[in-house]
Amino acid sequence: xxxxxxxxxxxxxxxxxxxxxxxxxxxxxxxxxxxxxxxxxxxxxxxxxxxxxxxxxxxxxxxxxxxxxxxxxxxxxxxxxxxxxxxxxxxxxxxxxxxxxxxxxxxxxxxxxxxxxxxxxxxxxxxxxxxxxxxxxxxxxxxxxxxxxxxxxxxxxxxxxxxxxxxxxxxxxxxxxxxxxxxxxxxxxxxxxxxxxxxxxxxxxxxxxxxxxxxxxxxxxxxxxxxxxxxxxxxxxxxxxxxxxxxxxxxxxxxxxxxxxxxxxxxxxxxxxxxxxxxxxxxxxxxxxxxxxxxxxxxxxxxxxxxxxxxxxxxxxxxxxxxxxxxxxxxxxxxxxxxxxxxxxxxxxxxxxxxxxxxxxxxxxxxxxxxxxxxxxxxxxxxxxxxxxxxxxxxx
Length: 396
Fold this sequence. Notes:
The chain is mainly alpha-helical. The protein folds into two domains: about 15-100, no CATH class; about 170-360, MFS general substrate transporter like domains (Growth Hormone, Chain: A, Up-down Bundle), CATH 1.20.1250.20. About 70% of the residues lie in helices and about 5% in strands.
């Protein structure tokens, strides 16, 4: 910009502020109108985002508001993701005009409802007593402040943090040495890689392939029904066939393999009704994995590592699964420019998840549900100089 200013002809006078915000902004309005017309003409009710610049004058702002409402109605209000305006006071009128039409709560109903439903669980988390879970030790834990090292004046928070990190590193080493657990989580990551894309790009894929107006309601119903039936059904089947780790891996590999076949086949058909039937069956089958995969996570490790095992599983399936999958599939779609091809390539990855879980059947596993938790190792907290009588009195 500085270079451009230096190269301006002698005697050049830049436009005034009023001209820049009136006459020149009219050109911006025309450009926006042209782009919006092209977008709404070429797109069949797909979700859109509009970005509007800063315009001067009440009449212009009202006109822009009306034009935005018309463009939004042309694709359906539920498909307009958001309208972005410059953060200036002049653009407030645009928002006010649009708000006069959109007086309903819309998506706020969903968020308010979810918050109300979750409120009792949040309260129970504070007031209910800790559960005495199977395999967990009932022994009292020696408080950290009994350690003489903590009573030393030169002990710092940094030293305590390093001590905790060292313990975390030891627990992670022990956790990753459990081959059954690692294979289970790897399969879960690949599984979540696929369904992260389904949840992110699903509606766009549905609109693009099947051209159905209420595809969001159809997909939502399939997720609710398939997820509920599949999760409960998979857990009941595992209990019926004896809930061991090898049986859990068998159920995981078989259910996901056949679920992948139905999901893959669903996207091969152009008929919306055939698609809905096949994708529902596939959703039920793949969601049958939820019970078995968590059973393996909990019972393939020592009781003291169960909380860490579940935490690492949850973090891993998101960091390595659904977080990178959506942008990667977006890049793939930019290359192939065909949503059916992109989604078929993605769905085929479910066969890889089934294969990974199939390997788990042949791994040596120990079912540790009945295993009692070992006495906590508190040697890292107590100095050897602490007398035995002092420890006894501390536990009382």
